[in-house]
Amino acid sequence: MKKVVVLLVCAVVLLVGDKSGIESSFDAKKACEQGKAFYDNKAYEQGRSFYNNKEYDKAAELFKKACDDGNICGCNNLGAMHEKGNGVKKNEQKAVELFKKVCDGGEVRGCFNLGVMYEYGNGVEKNIKKAAELYKKVCDGGDMYACYNLGLIYANGNGVEKDFSKAAELFKKACDGGEILGCFNLGVMYADGDGVEKNEQKAAQLYKKACDDGIMSGCYNLAIMYEKGKVVEKD
To answer: Residue 90 in 3-state DSSP?
Structure first.
């Protein structure tokens, strides 16, 4: 059986304070603590409660009120709701407008979301180079999920010159920062010797780490290694 290696591609628009979906190591509240007005806003807090209870109409109304009051976290979450069509009519152009406002206001989660929109051409003309610039800004600010996404862009050569060494560096940074998808893809790089010296033992360790943390592709690739008796004892 041929070993299958996968570079996972994820397009996830993230809400500030959202605990659903794929989590990054990013501290959402810390990102908004540029002043109490950004985070400690009654309408914003109420909106989060309604959102968590899946009362999306009320949540959207409150996030809009918070946004109109100058709360950029409310603007970000309203943008995410427009992007998903939760509680409001799906409007990707409006989502882009809101994410840009949030990013320009200094909240990097908005920059990440704007990067997602540019990468996939949702609500804006597709521009992977622009997406890469935004992911880099967010990655430099400490969001490991953005580092992972930027690594994918370099690994696939989308919008930038393909650079496996740069991709491996970014996957390692993401992995070391707690983003398990970065660990899995770093394992792929070690298995194939792309951007790093080939090291199947290191690949097996990374696949195990990914598998233990719920990444099923890591379990699969590790199983192939046991089947073939490569690096690990055949079992």
So the answer is: coil
